[in-house]
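pipeline stage [seq->struct] | target=Peroxiredoxin | organism=Sesamum angustifolium | residues=224
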Amino acid sequence: MPGLTIGDTLPDLELETTHGKLQLHDFVANNSNSFTIIFSHPGDFTPVCTTELGMMAAYADKFAERGVQLLGLSADDVQSHKEWIKDIEAYNKGHRVNYPIAADPTRRIIKQLNMVDPDEKDSSGQQTPSRALHIVGADKKIKLSFLYPASTGRNMDEVLRVVDSLQKAAQHKIATPANWKPGDPVVISPTVTNQEAKHMFPQGYQTAQLPSNKDYLRFTNISP
């Protein structure tokens, strides 16, 4: 679906949330050293969403360790959210939902944030949010997006993994290869010459031997 995607600037929206009114740009900019994760859900008191918001609460300390703040969004009103939170916390063994959840009963916000499921509709015929997730930088630009259908719950380990990848790439001229996990080798950016790599990565690096004899696939280890 066309709309907000990687590299775009987040629109500045006023949100009603379980923590009160919130101006989106101010909320994101206040987290000046890291990222904000904005994640949408099809509706309150629904099974997959209850497990997802509970898992976000369970992982909240891990995100906080990385300086990441969370903002949920569901297409119901704030009072409904507050009642739903009781179920979420009870199901997920008491993990507290300490992050704000925004309300969007008119579906205005999900349309502006490109979080609409094109196929799913609620009982009244309105479009519902997809399981969308944007990771947003302090510069208010989208750094990464996931888009899942309503039938598929998100994997929070993967969300945490991509946060680690984005933070590593922001600190060093590297990228993370397929199936990378924290502690695994990373690849040196092709924009870095071999001479530069010797200075930037004094711990050394290894170049994969390939039939092309090109030395573009260079692995190194960086500290956590």
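stage status: PASS
auto-comment: The first strand starts at residue 14 and ends at 17. The helical segments are 24-29, 47-58, 60-65, 78-91, 108-112, 156-171, 194-200.
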